[in-house]
């Protein structure tokens, strides 16, 4: 309950002080602030919310702060991720829970000219939110703990052998170089478990799972083992060739029936979705239109992945001959998959997927739409010209 100001401060004294400070009270009572006996400043954090987050919270939507102890915390709504940063302010921020604002009914109901309000905390900083990219680097590591390699491997791969560093019972010391082995269950993750570990919103996590071509198997999100996925898709391409089906109209049901003795249905459907688009015809039949670009990329990776550096011209010819009839290869399809050195003799090309690039902020800057190419170059590199008149770009910072 509000307490009235004591005899030490009168309305005249307050108005005199306000007048000296150039302040004028035109309506309502004067609220006199005083510090309480104990300030609980360490127990309070102020959080400044952007309009869209405030709207979400006011509308009853859930917001979550995510991050392990070793990570910087982020706040996630259903759609976006924001980094939490502490901002200092030169002005003291006073917390006064009972303060009345002119728009509040309690302010209008006050019939006294002077009331006392207690300040319960005094802060010099607050937390602010800045939109950021979802931090999904950990997602691939989590899913890689237990990739799907086929039904015949599921039972045998539920556990893996790991070194047990714990000391043996009875205080015995381990012989140098020898370690006890114990079995540890390979971890599989549900969507909620991934949310608990990955700093991303639900929507962004779904997009990341789609980019990684993860598959839901018995309630758990799994990555297909690379060799297994290649094997399944090669079976599909073999069926297309045997049945003389167009890669633009692949009957889903018929393909699954042809391969049902070799692979589970969900694996076939998943591979078709990874390399094409599933659609339903006017007659209600489900088909898949394979993407020419993705299929050509598939064959390019088959050739490049085990080869190290490949003679460029020999690769281009082998790649052209390996793709299904009716498909055309081109250099654009190799974007994000390989690097080539055309200055050496002979020219070479090698497998270097974009996923191998570092995930630090400076590398991710390349995908930020708000920054121009010139701004990025100015920020991260020094430009020089060599003896042949070619521009050379060198990093400002040495990589560690």
Cα-based radius of gyration, to the nearest Å: 32 Å
Query: Order of strands across the biggest sheet?
Result: 3-8-6-5-4
Alpha carbon gap, first and last residue: 61 Å
Tally of separate helices: 14
Main sheet: strands, sense, barrel: 5 strands, mixed
Mean pLDDT: 82
Q: How many β-strand stretches?
A: 20
SSE inventory with pairings:
Blueprint: E1 3-4, H1 11-20, E2 30-35, E3 47-48, H2 51-58, E4 64-66, E5 74-76, E6 81-95, H3 105-109, E7 114-119, E8 121-132, H4 137-143, H5 151-154, E9 159-164, E10 180-185, H6 191-197, H7 202-211, E11 215-217, E12 220-222, H8 226-243, E13 250-251, H9 252-259, H10 265-275, E14 276-280, E15 286-290, H11 292-304, E16 309-311, H12 312-322, E17 338-341, E18 348-351, H13 361-364, H14 373-380, E19 381-385, E20 391-395
Parallel strand pairs: 2-7, 3-8
Antiparallel strand pairs: 1-7, 4-5, 5-6, 6-8, 9-10, 11-12, 13-15, 14-15, 16-18, 17-18, 19-20
Helix pairs in contact: 8-10, 9-10, 11-12
């Amino acid at each position: 309950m509000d307490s009235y100001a004591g005899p030490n401060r009168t309305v005249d004294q307050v108005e005199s002080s306000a007048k000296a400070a150039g302040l004028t009270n035109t309506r309502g009572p004067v609220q006199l602030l005083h510090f309480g006996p104990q300030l609980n400043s360490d127990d309070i954090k102020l959080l400044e919310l952007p309009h869209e987050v405030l709207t979400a919270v006011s509308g009853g939507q859930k917001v979550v702060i995510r991050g392990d102890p070793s990570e910087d915390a982020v706040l996630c709504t259903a759609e976006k991720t924001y980094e939490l940063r502490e901002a200092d302010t030169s002005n003291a921020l006073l917390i006064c829970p009972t303060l009345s604002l002119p728009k509040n009914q309690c302010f209008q109901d006050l019939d006294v000219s002077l009331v006392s309000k207690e300040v319960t905390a005094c802060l010099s900083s607050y937390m602010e939110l800045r939109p950021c990219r979802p931090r999904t680097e950990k997602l691939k590591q989590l899913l890689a703990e237990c990739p799907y390699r086929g039904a015949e491997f599921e039972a045998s791969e539920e556990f893996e052998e790991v070194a047990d560093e714990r000391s043996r019972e009875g205080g015995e010391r381990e012989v140098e170089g020898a370690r006890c082995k114990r079995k540890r269950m390979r971890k599989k993750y549900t969507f909620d478990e991934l949310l608990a570990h990955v700093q991303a919103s639900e929507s962004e996590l779904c997009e990341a799972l789609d980019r990684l071509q993860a598959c839901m198997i018995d309630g758990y999100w799994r990555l297909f083992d690379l060799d297994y996925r290649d094997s399944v898709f090669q079976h599909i391409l073999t069926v297309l060739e045997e049945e003389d089906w167009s890669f633009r109209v692949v009957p889903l049901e018929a393909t699954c029936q042809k391969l049902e003795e070799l692979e589970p249905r969900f694996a076939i459907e998943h591979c078709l979705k990874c390399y094409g688009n599933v659609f339903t015809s006017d007659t209600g039949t489900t088909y898949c239109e394979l993407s020419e670009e993705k299929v050509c990329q598939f064959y390019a990776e088959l050739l490049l992945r085990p080869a190290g550096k490949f003679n460029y011209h020999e690769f281009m010819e082998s790649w052209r001959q390996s793709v299904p009839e009716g498909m055309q290869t081109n250099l654009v399809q190799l974007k994000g998959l390989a690097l080539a050195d055309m200055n050496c003799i002979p020219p070479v090309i090698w497998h270097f997927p974009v996923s191998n690039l570092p995930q630090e902020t400076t590398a991710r800057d390349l995908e930020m739409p708000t920054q121009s190419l010139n701004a990025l170059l100015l920020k991260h590199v020094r430009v020089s010209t060599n003896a042949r008149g070619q521009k050379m770009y060198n990093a400002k910072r040495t990589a560690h």
